[in-house]
Amino acid sequence: MDRQENSRWVAGLDIGGTKCAYLLARQDGGGLRFFERAEFPTAGKPEDVLSTLLGGVENALAKAGLSAKDLAACGISCGGPLDAKKGLILSPPNLPGWDGIPAAEIVSRRLGVPARLRNDADACALAEWKYGAGRGCGDFVFLTFGTGLGAGLILNGQLYEGASGAAGEAGHIRLESNGPAGYGKRGSFEGFCSGQGIAKLAAAMFPERADFADASAKRLAQAANGGDGDALEVFRLCGEKFGRGLSVLIDLLNPARIAVGGVFSRCEGLIRPAMERALHEEALPMSLAACKVVRAELGERIGDYGACMAALYE
Fold first, then answer.
1. Is 220:263 a contact under the CB 8 Å cutoff?
2. pTM
């Protein structure tokens, strides 16, 4: 974390495939105070979406009696692939048409302040590390477990991005030779352990269940919590595969803590029992003993915190 003044204003842009949000916040000492936030559907050309977001930031600054000159930086959180160093969004699968978009340059030119682009998993890892479940950890992993599965890595007290900025693509790890497809690979970590993966898993495991053909993870969780044996089996298998995937990360990275958001945060009771059994079967005992797997703490606000941390972390 950079160690400049203790109080500063930042803007954040959270760009998703379905919706985008802008926000204005102030970092005061160890806390982050949000002053303005609004969201809208992601629709139209990339340049138009960014212009609408930046117009919102400018309006928020005016309402607070500020101007862009009062901002320390603007953070941009977006799904990959992207080039954080060059500030380019590089055709994320959930953002068709966002091909080589110089997001950081567009934002910096409009506001006249530094703009920093981060992969959303990295941004959320920074947020949980600073303000959530990763506080005090030098070695920490955040897993999204949402529509897909991505990881943000804090190693030796720093964000680890890798040689090409693509570190943390845990969803691409193949857990089985066959299984639900995720991240372009059948049987992948994301295929078994994501919102889309759970839906695909249910349909494949129980093809005779018409109500499972297009069921969301949320509906399947409701069925499981209501005692539906088939839905419980879906989450048991998901938990088993999740434990195996976690074991790879624990053995390889030896983190002190892994925080998981998304579906896991909402369905921990359905996933954790099988996850724990798999962890004890697969992971190295010494590494497992040093690591706690916990629910992410920032909840639905994690995207807001992540966008701000994209601005604050240098």
1. no
2. 0.91
Q: What is the DSSP letter of 174?
A: B
Contacts of 89 (CB under 8 A, 6+ apart): 15, 46, 78, 82, 95, 98, 100, 101, 103, 117
Token pair 């921990």 is at which residue? 268
What separation, in Å, do the N-terminal and C-terminal C-alpha atoms of the chain show? Answer: 6
What is the per-residue pLDDT across 48-90, written as a single tens digit (0 to 9) for each? Answer: 999 999 999 999 999 999 999 999 999 999 988 899 999 999 9
CA–CA distance, 98 with 217 (Å, rounded to integer): 28
Q: What would the CATH number be for the domain defined by 7-120?
A: 3.30.420.40
Tens of pLDDT, residues 249-275: 999 999 999 999 999 999 999 999 999
State how far the alpha carbon of 6 is from the alpha carbons of 30, 32, 102, 119, 312, in Å.
8, 11, 30, 25, 11
Class of domain 133-297: alpha beta
Q: Which two tokens stand for residue 213?
A: 């053909």
Q: For 84-240, where are the E strands, in sequence order?
A: 88-90, 99-101, 115-119, 140-143, 151-155, 158-160, 181-182, 185-186
Residue 81: cis peptide before it, omega within 30 degrees of 0: yes
Domain positions in the chain: 7-120, 133-297
Q: Are 7-120 and 133-297 the same fold in CATH?
A: yes
